[in-house]
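User: Here's a protein and a ligand (EPU). What would the complex look like?
Assistant: Let me lay out the input and then the predicted complex.
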Amino acid sequence: MNFLPGAEVDLRGSNTLGLPAIAQWCTDIQDTADLPATLDFARSRGLAIRVLGGGSNVVLPERLPGLTLRMRSRGIALLEETSLAYVVRAAAGEPWHPFVLHCHQQGWHGLENLALIPGTVGAAPIQNIGAYGLELAHFVQEVRGVDTQSGEPRTLDAAACGFGYRHSVFKGSLAGRLLITDVVFALPRAASPVTHYAALAAELSGLAAPDHADVLAAVIAIRRRRLPDPDLLPNAGSFFKNPVVSSAEFWQLEARWPGIAHWPQEDGRVKLAAAWLVERCGWKGYREHGVGVHEAQALVLVNFGAGTAAALLALARRIQDSVLQRFGLGLEIEPVLC
Ligand code: EPU
């Protein structure tokens, strides 16, 4: 048992935006066996529970009341090899990118498109991480966790996770209710490289038949070029979701703004590149009050060091207002606002 919550813990190093934040109470969970005692501690003091993985998709306020749990549990296991898939369980605290590399090295393919996404395995289902033509949902067999109110273990199959574009029940109806302890993946034995995403196809264009290793290398190369490394320039990845509109709305927009970046969806609707909209409103490379818009990717807000949550959210609001005014489109913030 290694349960010792600290009081007034500085979380600046525990969120990739590097925002100043103090947790009223905070503890690291190395072993999920410590969860019942942890939940009892919170319940007996009437403390709300908050969970942090890699802190790469959150905007923390300057003060977080309640008990913050940093998930640090580790472990990767091949549970089963069926004729169709490798079934792999990973603990919530496993850092995501090393997990992708490990799977790749074992010959369990499919996750290569999701390489270099910051954060942990346990946080990945919450926003259904996705990149370069694939989403996590495609590979999830089940998500295991503990009910924060009853302390009981709970397992959700993929359908129960309610995955959507950068969305899941863990962000919706189960927000704050389920503490994710493990994710079980089904990685198809016959996974073929997914290369249709335009930027990825362009990166691979010199290769006749790219394999999984090529996809992995290409994704890493694109991300290193386009997305700031949070260790060097604090950020939380895309700050806004890409808006999805009806085809009728899209045709109207396209008539007015030829060349508007977009992706047709399977259901007939059209996803628009929020980065394109933000850039056309003149924000790319903009800076104010210690925060700004990344110069190579207009969807990424960055903290130059002295930024606060208030400054960041004020900038986000101004960007949202300008996109609404110019294009008539509302941009939704993507990270979780704690
Ligand atoms: N574009 C611009 N200006 C920019 C950047 C992009 O006009 O500054 C346009 C270009 O036309 C480009 C298009 O936007 O073709 C799409 O850009 P990109 O491929 O960089 O993707 P994105 O839509 O901006 C999404 C995800 C990223 C993910 C990439 C790659 C969301 C909110 N973001 O970004 O995910 O890595 O696709 O698949 O869906 C994240 O969620 O935190 C994240 C980084």
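Summary: The radius of gyration is 20 Å.
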